[in-house]
Amino acid sequence: MAEIEQPHEGAALAALRRWARDQAHARPRLVANAWRAGARNVAALAREAKVTRDTIYADLRAHGIDPTDPQQKKEPAMPADTTVVARYLTVAGESLNDPSLAVDVTLYSDPDWARSENEARVICPCGFNTPLWAQPSGRKYDLAEPDQAAAARAEAREQITAEGRELAQSHAETCRAMPAPAV
Predict the structure, then answer these.
(1) Taking the mean position of all CA atoms in its chain, how far away is CA 44?
(2) Domain that holds residue 130
(3) What is the mean pLDDT of the chain?
(4) pTM for the complete prediction?
């Protein structure tokens, strides 16, 4: 049996340093995206990211977000420019024959609200509201070329629509939330 060659210690440590640097660069962007998606609890963000609240404050400020500004603490208003690409009836909606009790996969086109034209949300009347962002596929696009930029957008939309459909269907199959009774 051939012996597996172990990486040189220096190369292994260099790879570990690169990984840590890449994670440190991604975290502030992900924290800002979570804030823009409606996650406004700094302690919860810190817990999820496994960092201190001071780090979360610094990450938000690095992206032009002032978490102490009362205007920025408000939940974002839903934009008018949206497209529902899929709708799944929840268990409660099916039982009550109420189509308003459905989980929607919604794509956004308003760059001021979404911060990206490749954002979608899975939204249910129960309060389930999960943002999805397209991840790079690995394919290289020259975004200066209009045809390639359009192809990149189409690929991203397909990806988040597929992920959104899967998440929405999974949630709809278990959601039993009922509307509040009329008083």
Answers:
(1) 16
(2) 82-172
(3) 75
(4) 0.49
